[in-house]
Design a protein that fits this description.
The protein is of the alpha+beta class. About 20% of the residues lie in helices and about 30% in strands.
Amino acid sequence: MKLLRLAFLALLFAGCDVAPPEPTKSPLEQTYIARTVVAVSVQQTIDAQGTRAALNPIPFSPPTLTPLPTMPRITLTYTPTATAPFAPAATPAMSPPDSTPEPGGAISLPLKPGLSLELEWAEALAQAGRYTPRQGYFLVLHGTLVNRAAQDQCVYSHEIRLGFEGERYPPYVEAMGTMRSTYNIDYPGPFNGQCALPNSRTPTYILFDVPARMTGFAFFYRDVRAGSLSLARRGDGNFDIVPGG
């Protein structure tokens, strides 16, 4: 009886699916399986982060570009200064010192080789701008610097004097400067002077504060007597400049 029961139980268990025990893995296989699991886990993490980044992109604002200011274009225009043509001539001699009349009434005073001063007329002023004469009246000599040299030549106020009764009278520079806008020409100043271009004629004027009784005088350039002159009153109240004095 016990044998039949045992046989029955053996048949019963033989019909059931019982999984056989798994074989034991080697250490090399276990290491490979562990690395594979880690790699898969890392890849899944990267994929998950990429998916979140794609779903929630980080906002990006492009930088604001500030345009550079536009610099104004500067155009330089050169306007040549017209000068009266002058035919070159021989250098005038420095002697004799006295002046000689020029055609048309002008008197030429030699200043230095190649440069002379042609005095044409004179006027007497009781005031020049805000300046009044201390000696008697303002004498203004009008003329032209004639440069026959091949280079610029300049004249300065400190080089010029008028001689009368043993006294020397220099140009009154401050009063002379106030008359520039009236005459609209340059004059021999103390620093820049007045320069004449080569082979040119340059209008000029020179103002002096002189005694009221002075009607004749000597003209000195660099302490050298260039001429002796006198004033002859004209009908319009101005003066002709004539030799002598």
